[in-house]
Amino acid sequence: EQRAAPGEANIVALHSLARTMPRLAARALALIASAQAFYLPGVAPRDYMDSDKVEIRVHKLSSPRTHLPFDYYSLPFCRPDNLVKQAENLGEVLHGAVIQNSPYEVFMGRSEFRIACRVELTKAQKITLSQRVRQDYRVHLIMDNLPAATKMIAEMADGTKKDMYDRGFRLGFLGSKDIPGTEPTKPYVNNHLRFIVKYHRSDTFPGSRIVGFEVEAYSVKHTYEGQWDEKSPKLTSVPLRPDLAPMLAWSNEIVYTYDVVWEHSPIAWASRWDLYLYMGDDQVHWFSILNSLVIVLLLSGIVAMIMVRTLRRDLAEYNSVEEKEELLEESGWKLVHADVLRPPPLAAWLATTIGTGMQVLCMSFISIACAMLGFLSPANRGSMLTVSLLLFALMGVAAGYCAALAYKAFKGAQWKSLTLLTAFLFPGIVLGVMFVLNFFIWGQHSSGAVPFGTMFAVLCIWFLISFPLVWVGVWLGYRGTLKDPPVKTNMVPRVIPSQAWYLHPLFTMLIGGILPFGAVFIELYFIMSSIWLQRFYYVFGFLALVLLILIITCAEISIVMCYFQLCAEDYHWWWRAFLTSGSSAGYMFAYSAFYFYTKLEITKLTSCLLYFGYMFIAALVFFVLTGTIGFYACYWFVWRIFSAIKVD
After folding, report:
1. Burial of 543 from C-beta contacts in 10 A (0-12 / 13-18 / 19+)
2. Residue 143: strand, helix, or coil
3. What is the separation of C-alpha 228 from the centre of its chain, rounded to a whole number of angstroms?
4. What pTM was estimated for this model as a whole?
5. For 150, phi and psi rounded to 5 degrees?
6. CB 472 within 8 Å of CB 397
7. Could you give the CA distance from residue 585 to residue 432 in angstroms, rounded to a whole number?
């Protein structure tokens, strides 16, 4: 299903801006901007005949306040006679999903009221249920591969109203003076569910297809005549009325009921995910793109001035025979030609970081491309995380190859150490942090804790796939050939003169990191909201364009800072090139702290550790990604300018 195209005004604005760029860049920009995310369903549509059974499965319990998912049956809900777990992929397990069958019986076309069961609660169950209600947990169900949703009506900027879906439905609520029949701060549980199932019919296929699954949750204190009869209970609280008292979570027993309502819908089966994936007005994303393009154009102008005017003048002076004697007493970037390619300290660590950055960059490109083509649809739950992990392992070849080429340029000799560092340094840090966090999740008895079997599978992917591929990449890079360096390196290093305060590494990192972060922070807000506020993110066309802008921004700011550094006769540019753009990860982590205190309502210690632990991992990935882009840009820049001068 093709997503709605942006407004014509936005397209005209983008094209008018693109005309100022080179023709080839404008065409590439328009191609990526026009790539809208659509999805190819993972399964064929299912046609239901009248009275066919429609299965409802339970998914999990989740809360934006704790981010600790729980098994649906960890609470005192109705259970089927035989629990059957659905096979889950790696991504679903890591998300804490436990998909099982449910006791709800729904038949195509039948609108009816049913009693699910009566549950007698123990003291421990009362405490747990009340606690989950206070923590604002939501219940997630699945019907025909569609998640249950709560319908909301949002008012748009132009005054129109649009239907939107919020994932899942509330487990309960806290009483207040505004809710009749409730006591303030007391927890109440939603024990009656109304399933509003939307179906579509057409002459092109037999039967009906389910295109919507809405749930309306109510709290009703059911009453019944005499003793409870499992076979034919007689409720006196039906039909439901507004004057019925709500159901306290701290009750000795709870009667669960549900009713089913069928509604015909004009929405086609291929469009049924549109309401789930709707992310508001696209103008916000276009504003983000235009904001980033302004930064890119500013940096492009500076780089063009350096490359076309300043460098051309410098090269003309340096290559002029008449002025060579005068240049001996002057300063400039040519004076460090005999030291500019001197190997950096900690060469193996820098090469390892560069290799990992290329691994992340290749993984990001392929993952976003697959998502844009619809192969990673939300209909295939957990597919994005699963594919990303597998791609990261497979891109071990790129990590080893790029690390080996860089290490060879650094004239390194410890090849075994390089291979081990590339294969284990950054993946080891990430898995180590996740392993520690997993202990805290286990302590909360959450379904989000990774089982030992899954952890063993991840380790097998690491040791049996990623490590051998890294070794192959290092071997290929070791056998590869490098171009002859444009200049020779002296045996004795040149003394670096004292540097101005604005060329201090910390200051250049502070300036160099803010522009790449500024180019992506608006899109970063939407991504973080999808993760921590449990919303869908499915605008990968914009994300691909933002990634391209990020690459250009990192490259240009690193080149500018590198040029100023070389002009000050400081030839230690290898690590500085990496850290200048890589420092944007520090801004990203600082923004995550700001987001935590302004947007989230997390209070538990374990949830805080989870948030900052996962954001540390995200910042680390962003660090190696942006740093690698800056390094390669500076490497190309240094190679080009020193290849253009004449050195005796």
Report:
1. buried
2. strand
3. 50
4. 0.84
5. -100, 125
6. yes
7. 20
Is the CB of residue 105 less than 8 Å from the CB of residue 62? no
DSSP code at position 337:
T
Tell me the residue ranges of DSSP E strands in 1-137.
Answer: 53-54, 56-62, 100-101, 106-107, 113-120
Dihedral class, residue 246 (left if φ above 0, else alpha if ψ from -120 to 50, else beta):
beta
Find the helix packing angle between 505-532 and 584-599, rounded to 10°: 40
Task: Give Cα 368 distance to the centre of its chain.
Answer: 11
Answer whether 106's CB lies under 8 Å from 54's CB.
Answer: yes
Q: CA 303, CA 300: separation in Å to the nearest integer?
A: 5
Please state the separation of Cα 17 from the chain's center in Å: 29
d(Cα 77, Cα 117) in Å, to the nearest integer?
9
State which amino acid sits at residue 131.
Q
Helix (H) or strand (E) holding 256: strand 253-264
Residues 619 and 33: their CA atoms lie apart, in Å, by: 26
Which H helix or E strand runs over 152? Answer: strand 149-155
pLDDT tens-digit profile of 410-447? 988 889 999 999 999 999 999 999 999 999 999 898 98
| φ, ψ of residue 214 in degrees (nearest 5) | -105, 150
Peptide bond into 187 cis (omega under 30): no
Predicted confidence (pLDDT) at residue 6 exceeds the cutoff of 50? no
CA 521, 522, 526, 527 torsion: positive or negative? Answer: negative
**Nearest Cα to Cα of residue 146 among 355, 302, 378:** 378
- 511, amino acid identity: I
